[in-house]
Write a structure and sequence with these properties.
- By secondary structure, the chain is α/β, with parallel strands linked by helices.
- It has a single domain, classed as Spore Coat Polysaccharide Biosynthesis Protein SpsA, Chain A (Alpha-Beta Complex).
- It is built from nine helices and seven strands.
- The chain has a seven-stranded mixed β-sheet with strand order 3-2-1-4-6-5-7, sandwiched between helices.
- It starts with a strand and ends with a helix.
- About 40% of the residues are buried.
Length: about 220
Amino acid sequence: MNKKITVVIPAFNEERTIKDMIDKCRPFCDEMVIALAKKSSDSTKDIAKSLGLKIIVDNGKGKGDGMRCAINQIKEGIIVFIDADGSHIPSDIPTIVGPIKDNEADMVIGSRFLGGSEELHGDFGKFIRMFFSMCIAQIMNWRFNASIQDTQNGFRAIDARVANDLGLTSKHTEIETEMCMKCLKKKYRIKEVPSKELKRQFGKSNIRLTKHGWSYAWTVFKNLF
Protein backbone atom coordinates (compact mmCIF):
# COMPACT_ATOMS: atom_id res chain seq x y z
CA MET A 1 0.00 0.00 0.00
CA ASN A 2 1.35 3.42 -0.96
CA LYS A 3 1.25 5.64 2.12
CA LYS A 4 2.90 9.01 2.67
CA ILE A 5 5.94 8.70 4.94
CA THR A 6 6.66 11.58 7.31
CA VAL A 7 9.89 11.47 9.29
CA VAL A 8 9.78 13.28 12.62
CA ILE A 9 13.11 14.16 14.22
CA PRO A 10 12.86 15.27 17.86
CA ALA A 11 15.75 17.67 18.45
CA PHE A 12 17.27 19.47 21.42
CA ASN A 13 20.58 21.27 20.77
CA GLU A 14 21.62 18.97 17.91
CA GLU A 15 23.37 21.50 15.64
CA ARG A 16 26.36 19.18 15.14
CA THR A 17 24.34 16.29 13.72
CA ILE A 18 21.03 17.63 12.44
CA LYS A 19 22.13 18.41 8.87
CA ASP A 20 23.67 14.98 8.42
CA MET A 21 20.51 13.29 9.72
CA ILE A 22 18.28 15.36 7.45
CA ASP A 23 20.41 14.58 4.39
CA LYS A 24 20.42 10.86 5.18
CA CYS A 25 16.66 10.69 5.80
CA ARG A 26 15.55 12.58 2.67
CA PRO A 27 15.74 9.64 0.23
CA PHE A 28 13.41 7.53 2.38
CA CYS A 29 10.45 9.82 3.07
CA ASP A 30 7.98 12.22 1.52
CA GLU A 31 8.23 14.86 4.23
CA MET A 32 10.36 15.66 7.26
CA VAL A 33 9.41 17.54 10.42
CA ILE A 34 11.68 18.75 13.21
CA ALA A 35 10.00 18.48 16.62
CA LEU A 36 12.18 21.17 18.18
CA ALA A 37 12.51 21.53 21.92
CA LYS A 38 11.39 24.95 23.08
CA LYS A 39 14.46 25.00 25.34
CA SER A 40 16.85 24.34 22.45
CA SER A 41 19.35 27.21 22.36
CA ASP A 42 21.82 26.38 19.58
CA SER A 43 21.56 26.63 15.77
CA THR A 44 19.41 23.52 15.23
CA LYS A 45 16.36 25.58 14.20
CA ASP A 46 18.32 27.80 11.79
CA ILE A 47 19.96 24.81 10.11
CA ALA A 48 16.65 22.99 9.69
CA LYS A 49 14.97 26.11 8.30
CA SER A 50 17.79 26.65 5.82
CA LEU A 51 17.16 23.13 4.53
CA GLY A 52 13.46 23.81 4.04
CA LEU A 53 12.08 21.66 6.84
CA LYS A 54 8.86 22.20 8.71
CA ILE A 55 9.53 22.97 12.37
CA ILE A 56 7.15 22.26 15.23
CA VAL A 57 8.20 23.79 18.54
CA ASP A 58 7.05 21.89 21.61
CA ASN A 59 5.75 23.34 24.88
CA GLY A 60 9.07 22.97 26.67
CA LYS A 61 8.11 19.85 28.61
CA GLY A 62 10.31 17.16 27.00
CA LYS A 63 10.77 14.76 24.08
CA GLY A 64 7.36 13.15 24.52
CA ASP A 65 5.72 16.55 24.41
CA GLY A 66 7.44 17.28 21.09
CA MET A 67 6.40 13.93 19.62
CA ARG A 68 2.80 14.52 20.65
CA CYS A 69 2.85 17.98 19.06
CA ALA A 70 3.99 16.38 15.80
CA ILE A 71 1.40 13.59 15.97
CA ASN A 72 -1.35 16.16 16.44
CA GLN A 73 -0.46 17.70 13.08
CA ILE A 74 0.01 14.48 11.08
CA LYS A 75 -3.29 12.73 10.44
CA GLU A 76 -2.54 10.36 7.56
CA GLY A 77 0.18 8.05 6.30
CA ILE A 78 3.08 6.65 8.32
CA ILE A 79 5.04 8.56 10.94
CA VAL A 80 8.69 7.57 11.46
CA PHE A 81 10.40 8.78 14.61
CA ILE A 82 14.21 8.89 14.50
CA ASP A 83 16.64 10.52 16.92
CA ALA A 84 18.76 13.48 15.84
CA ASP A 85 21.99 12.36 17.51
CA GLY A 86 23.15 10.01 14.75
CA SER A 87 22.59 6.79 16.71
CA HIS A 88 19.94 5.49 14.30
CA ILE A 89 20.54 4.41 10.70
CA PRO A 90 18.21 6.23 8.26
CA SER A 91 18.72 3.62 5.54
CA ASP A 92 16.75 1.23 7.79
CA ILE A 93 13.60 3.33 7.31
CA PRO A 94 12.25 1.22 4.38
CA THR A 95 12.61 -1.92 6.51
CA ILE A 96 10.79 -0.28 9.41
CA VAL A 97 7.86 1.08 7.39
CA GLY A 98 7.54 -2.06 5.25
CA PRO A 99 5.27 -4.10 7.58
CA ILE A 100 2.87 -1.14 7.91
CA LYS A 101 2.75 -0.68 4.14
CA ASP A 102 2.08 -4.40 3.75
CA ASN A 103 -0.69 -4.27 6.40
CA GLU A 104 1.23 -6.63 8.67
CA ALA A 105 1.60 -4.20 11.57
CA ASP A 106 0.31 -0.92 12.96
CA MET A 107 3.57 0.00 14.70
CA VAL A 108 7.10 -1.24 13.96
CA ILE A 109 10.06 -0.86 16.31
CA GLY A 110 13.67 -0.87 15.14
CA SER A 111 14.93 -3.39 17.69
CA ARG A 112 18.38 -2.97 19.22
CA PHE A 113 18.11 -6.44 20.72
CA LEU A 114 17.77 -7.92 17.24
CA GLY A 115 20.18 -5.51 15.49
CA GLY A 116 22.70 -4.77 18.22
CA SER A 117 23.67 -1.61 20.08
CA GLU A 118 26.92 0.28 20.50
CA GLU A 119 25.24 2.66 22.95
CA LEU A 120 23.91 0.32 25.65
CA HIS A 121 27.27 -1.31 26.42
CA GLY A 122 30.48 -0.14 28.03
CA ASP A 123 29.77 0.89 31.62
CA PHE A 124 27.61 -0.01 34.59
CA GLY A 125 25.14 2.82 33.98
CA LYS A 126 24.41 1.59 30.46
CA PHE A 127 24.02 -1.96 31.75
CA ILE A 128 21.43 -0.76 34.28
CA ARG A 129 19.55 1.08 31.53
CA MET A 130 19.48 -2.06 29.39
CA PHE A 131 18.39 -4.21 32.36
CA PHE A 132 15.63 -1.74 33.27
CA SER A 133 14.43 -1.74 29.65
CA MET A 134 14.31 -5.54 29.63
CA CYS A 135 12.29 -5.56 32.87
CA ILE A 136 9.72 -3.20 31.36
CA ALA A 137 9.45 -5.43 28.29
CA GLN A 138 8.89 -8.53 30.41
CA ILE A 139 6.14 -6.88 32.46
CA MET A 140 4.47 -5.68 29.28
CA ASN A 141 4.73 -9.08 27.61
CA TRP A 142 3.32 -10.81 30.69
CA ARG A 143 0.35 -8.43 30.90
CA PHE A 144 -0.59 -8.43 27.23
CA ASN A 145 0.65 -11.88 26.17
CA ALA A 146 3.10 -10.29 23.74
CA SER A 147 6.72 -11.00 22.79
CA ILE A 148 8.38 -7.62 22.29
CA GLN A 149 12.07 -7.35 23.16
CA ASP A 150 12.85 -3.66 22.68
CA THR A 151 9.96 -1.50 23.90
CA GLN A 152 12.09 1.60 24.45
CA ASN A 153 13.90 2.39 21.21
CA GLY A 154 12.90 5.75 19.74
CA PHE A 155 13.44 4.56 16.15
CA ARG A 156 9.98 3.39 15.16
CA ALA A 157 7.18 3.79 12.65
CA ILE A 158 3.48 4.01 13.37
CA ASP A 159 0.35 4.46 11.30
CA ALA A 160 -0.67 8.10 11.80
CA ARG A 161 -4.30 7.19 12.50
CA VAL A 162 -3.18 4.75 15.19
CA ALA A 163 -0.86 7.34 16.75
CA ASN A 164 -3.72 9.83 16.97
CA ASP A 165 -6.02 7.20 18.49
CA LEU A 166 -3.71 6.32 21.38
CA GLY A 167 -4.33 9.47 23.42
CA LEU A 168 -0.69 9.80 24.44
CA THR A 169 0.07 11.95 27.49
CA SER A 170 3.77 11.39 28.29
CA LYS A 171 6.05 14.40 28.41
CA HIS A 172 9.45 12.72 28.34
CA THR A 173 11.16 9.62 26.91
CA GLU A 174 8.70 7.29 28.61
CA ILE A 175 6.39 8.02 25.67
CA GLU A 176 7.89 5.02 23.84
CA THR A 177 6.70 2.76 26.67
CA GLU A 178 3.28 4.38 26.64
CA MET A 179 2.97 3.91 22.87
CA CYS A 180 3.67 0.19 23.17
CA MET A 181 1.31 -0.42 26.06
CA LYS A 182 -1.57 1.52 24.56
CA CYS A 183 -1.11 -0.20 21.19
CA LEU A 184 -1.32 -3.59 22.92
CA LYS A 185 -4.26 -2.51 25.05
CA LYS A 186 -6.16 -1.36 21.95
CA LYS A 187 -5.24 -4.57 20.06
CA TYR A 188 -3.01 -2.85 17.52
CA ARG A 189 -0.28 -4.98 15.99
CA ILE A 190 3.36 -4.37 16.93
CA LYS A 191 6.28 -5.85 15.04
CA GLU A 192 10.03 -5.61 15.57
CA VAL A 193 12.69 -5.53 12.88
CA PRO A 194 16.47 -5.52 13.40
CA SER A 195 18.16 -2.12 13.51
CA LYS A 196 21.61 -1.47 14.90
CA GLU A 197 22.03 1.43 17.30
CA LEU A 198 25.28 3.30 16.72
CA LYS A 199 27.27 5.11 19.36
CA ARG A 200 26.09 8.72 19.47
CA GLN A 201 28.49 11.08 17.71
CA PHE A 202 28.46 13.79 20.38
CA GLY A 203 27.39 14.18 23.98
CA LYS A 204 25.71 11.70 26.29
CA SER A 205 22.20 10.39 26.77
CA ASN A 206 19.93 12.68 28.76
CA ILE A 207 18.16 9.69 30.33
CA ARG A 208 18.98 9.31 34.02
CA LEU A 209 17.26 6.51 35.90
CA THR A 210 17.59 8.44 39.16
CA LYS A 211 15.67 11.30 37.54
CA HIS A 212 13.38 9.58 35.02
CA GLY A 213 12.99 6.08 36.45
CA TRP A 214 9.86 6.98 38.42
CA SER A 215 8.22 8.28 35.22
CA TYR A 216 8.81 4.96 33.48
CA ALA A 217 7.54 3.02 36.50
CA TRP A 218 4.39 5.14 36.74
CA THR A 219 3.75 4.86 32.99
CA VAL A 220 3.97 1.07 33.19
CA PHE A 221 1.76 0.84 36.26
CA LYS A 222 -1.04 3.11 35.08
CA ASN A 223 -1.26 1.36 31.69
CA LEU A 224 -1.37 -2.18 33.06
CA PHE A 225 -5.10 -2.02 33.67
